[in-house]
Amino acid sequence: MSVSKIWNTLFLEERPSIGLSFFRIAVVLTTGFHVIPSFFHLDDNYLSTAFKSLNGQFFTPDVLELVQKSPDALVIGFVGLFIISWFFFLIGLFSQVSCIIMTFCCYYFYALNDFQIGTLSWDILLVILFLMCLTPYHGDYFSVDVLRRRDPQAYQRHRPFFLQRLLQLQIASTFFYTALYKISAEGNWLHGNPVYYLMNYPPGGVTKYFLFKEWMAVHPAFCYWTGIFILCVEFALPFLLFCPYTRRSAIMMGIFFHVVLLLTLDVPAIFFFLFPAQMLLFIHPQHELNWINRQRGLNASSARFKVIYDGHCGFCQQSVQQLKAMDLFNRCDYVDYQTASHLEQLHSSLDKRIAASQLHLITPDGRIYSGFFAFRQMGWLMPMMVPLLLLMYLPTADWIGPTVYRWIANNRYLFHFHRACKDNRCLR
Q1: Coil, strand or helix at 223
Q2: Are 375 and 398 in contact, with CB atoms under 8 Å apart?
Q3: pLDDT digits (tens, 9 = 90+) for 356-365
Q4: What distance lies between CA 205 and its chain's CA centroid?
Q5: Residue 284: helix, strand or coil by DSSP?
Q6: Which of 201, 382, 411, 426 has its CA at a distance of 20 to 30 angstroms from the CA of residue 38?
């Protein structure tokens, strides 16, 4: 195999990007859990009254000097900019632009004061954020961007694989060099017993209380070999993850490794949200796509949900196109009541007057949901709507939801600002 072919296979080959779309969620949650808590005490962390520690190894003196001149109003402005861009990146609205702005804010706060967030895990996260800024691929699915495009085939769009490959190399090198550090001149895992030390003399805020902690504290030999086992796992994982024959086992081993860390040590959010999700990027995207298509095929041949809508309404047509983009597993058929010959065959309670009033969802067992409650039921069918279920099941949602939906349904002709309604067909 030629060098150019190997390079193309490793980095330039196009594969589905759906896995990267879900990884975006892990990245943004990790960033939020690192940065947003530091905003709760701005006077102690970032304002002119804060005690500050500057990272001269990460930033040049000129950058640090410039950032330190920031007035408090500018710091507060960056807080607002971060929160807005963080939320946009979370929902995938202008995904690449919001990622760039959020990342710039992260660097700003890091240069302003690294005392709160300046850790090794934070440096790793910044590298990942920089890589995410390079492409818009993370907005290909599970994002508002895909709803704006109304593309029902977005989940299987192929993109250059180089970003996922770089992220794979990043997590693999993190494991390898973490293990290498443990046996370097500054490490003592081969000749010492750091696990035993952690069980007996841990610094404050390092270890948690767990089931076997007291037992391990009086068994130094077990602690030593546990440390050796951890070393072996960290050295082996980079190779096992890249080997197709051991990849699945390596992913499960890596996730289990991080679960144990979370249960025993007080570790940063990156160990909970980001590292396990990053290891899932080793799953070949085509395998993910094949699994999705198998589910779509099974659902196509089984009893289906029916969405009844007004095909003469541009606003309704747009909404249905967005529903189709969210319907990842092909659970629903979409029926235009304007062209349906026998509505009563779909459900005995339906006629054109009722169908025109609002959107309806008919389940395979014959139950019918209308308006807001139809959307809420669809939240269980479409992965992209699952986060909205938290809002749609709030105690007051049964009153507020139908009220808001009814107003939109009765006044949809007011939405002339959108191109979907520019022909004014809702008035006919």
Answers
A1: helix
A2: no
A3: 778 888 888 8
A4: 28
A5: coil
A6: 201
